Request: fold
Amino acid sequence: LVRIAQEVGNYETLKRNDSKYTELLSALRRYWAENPEKKVVLFAFYRQTLSYLAERLREDGFDSVLVFGGIDKADALARFRDPSGPRILLSSEVTSGGVDLQFSSLVINYDLPWNPMRIEQRIGRIDRIGQEAERIFIWNFMYADTIDERVHDRLLERLDIFTRALGSMEGVLGEPIKDL
Reply:
């Protein structure tokens, strides 16, 4: 158990075995091969996750803009809006409300919050008046058979309760990416 705990906490081991990041990188490469000029908004809850993703993406040749509490949000968003700026925004919940990013057509939930309204707020950054894309995409990354999948399933249940009570609504969670 000690050996496993040490390996789990080892950054180099994480980098070698991080199937979630590997799938993210592969999916982004496919997306940008088909949509080379499109910008992507990725949400994660933890600062450390966002910093990790920024470092990994940089190592793989992709610049990103990082936004979380304590960072100059206006400056970071201006860099992301710039057509020649980085193509991916890595953000905490700090940009999940009140920020217009309709020039993007893909939201990635690298982790899922328990509250379905948080998902709606994240998606609402790109799904707004002025969105030029015919379709927007929502990708949810999770490990199968883990708490990630349980959170996703629970969110779907909650959204189904809203649908039954209020009538039909657009798919909020998109298609899950379960096989990492």
